[in-house]
Amino acid sequence: MTQQLRAGMVGMGMIFDETYRPFFEKARAAGLYDRRFGDVDVQLAAVATKTGKRADAYLQSAGEKIHRFQNFVGDHAAQEMVKAGVDFACVATPDDRHFAASKAVLESGAHLLVEKPSVLKLQELDELVALAQQKGLLAKVVYHKLLDPDHKKLRTFVHDGVFQHVNNGYCSLLEPKQISGAQFSEWITGRNPGTYVACHYIKLIDFTFGGRLKTVTASGQRGIVGPKHGTTWDSTQMKMIYEYADGREAAFDIHTSWVTPDNFPGYVEQEVQFRFDNGIWNAHSRKRGIECTVEGLTPTKLKTTMNTHYNGTFVEPWGERSQRGYGIEVLERFAREVSYVEFAGDKNQRTERLNEMRALAYNDLASDRQTVAAVQALEAILAKAAAGHPDCVVRVNDARGGLVLYQPGSPEPDVLYGPRV
Ligand SMILES: NC(=O)c1ccc[n+]([C@@H]2O[C@H](COP(=O)([O-])OP(=O)(O)OC[C@H]3O[C@@H](n4cnc5c(N)ncnc54)[C@H](O)[C@@H]3O)[C@@H](O)[C@H]2O)c1
Description:
Elements: E1 3-10, H1 14-30, E2 32-34, E3 38-49, H2 53-62, E4 70-73, H3 77-81, E5 88-91, H4 98-107, E6 111-115, H5 122-135, E7 139-142, H6 149-159, E8 166-176, H7 177-183, H8 193-209, E9 212-221, E10 235-243, E11 249-260, E12 269-276, E13 280-284, E14 312-315, E15 321-324, H9 326-343, H10 350-358, H11 369-386, E16 393-398, E17 401-406, E18 414-417
Parallel strand pairs: 1-3, 1-5, 3-4, 5-6, 6-7, 8-11
Antiparallel strand pairs: 2-3, 8-12, 9-10, 9-16, 10-11, 12-13, 14-15, 16-17, 17-18
Helix pairs in contact: 1-9, 4-5, 6-8, 8-11, 9-10
Bound molecules: nicotinamide-adenine-dinucleotide (NAD).
Nicotinamide-adenine-dinucleotide binds next to helix 1, strand 3 and helix 3.
């Protein structure tokens, strides 16, 4: 008998089209197989979006490539969608709308996969983790850069002791202006590129090097996406200080922007450098890869430096057309984790399997604490700056609380989160 997982999808924007769509289409065509759980039929059963237009257009254009899913529309579409009955649901709405949809998914008894950053506050994270625990469900987050082969090699070297003790480093990610100006115009007001993409590197640093987050500072610039004194940010620079078990510290700078000129050849330019006691790691998404020019197509219609590791469309050597890369692999991996919990053996051993999958720190929400803490700190520092109070510092787990914001010249700190992070 074929086992089945009915899936829900909240949000069908850019990331749905890039990664979820090819994942669901491939799963429909080929199924999901593992010797431990057998053949699993993954079916996109229901979707929830603001207007339903993209979902309708996709149903029309995809034809037989996708199951005839139900289409829910409006601000409460996620809450309606889960009533259709799904086994797991993916949340890919704008980042400040992750929490409500994720809560609805878990409350309905479905496993959750939410886009990065999972949520914007530790208070929200606590609620989702408690819900998942209480309902016996997986609650996981997508940080696909952990599956980038270059980042996996870095982590393997750290794990194996080839690199000894990280001391400091920097990461930068530059998005083109079309992202802030056109793609995200519906929801970008009051938002910043740090929360949107620095979280990838916060997680990479947190997961790869471990340690305890101590301090977060941040600055940013305004005036292109929105007014120069407003709450919408063009670019941000954050610094995190970590402390390790031996008492030594490391510092990391993460620079992000979504106002890079559209014709810059490094479309989504990504760079990291980490320095260790005994070595240095330099990785550059553009320099590792392709440089391609086609008259009339690059760099706008076709990318000059496409990242085929993340996501590429190919004619395979055996003739088949495919779309593959770590951006898709990470979603399939989650569906395999759900299949393992539900189908890989006796029902009475489900809790053991559930706990085994929950222990995977790379994507479990319970392991996302320091990343969410850094995002919450960044958001609070930028909000203070926009309100005329720049240069605030957030300290983690000090005498006054778990996440405490200090404002220059103000005697009383703001406790953003009371319990220990
Ligand atoms: N993994 C990655 O590298 C990556 C890349 C891009 C985006 N993302 C993440 O994916 C999420 C979505 O980004 P995007 O680029 O697809 O954005 P987008 O603006 O292209 O699409 C957002 C989608 O959410 C829907 N939506 C908005 N509010 C909703 C609500 N209340 N209920 C239901 N649907 C709602 C919209 O209708 C739209 O379909 C963000 O969290 C972003 O951080 C991740």
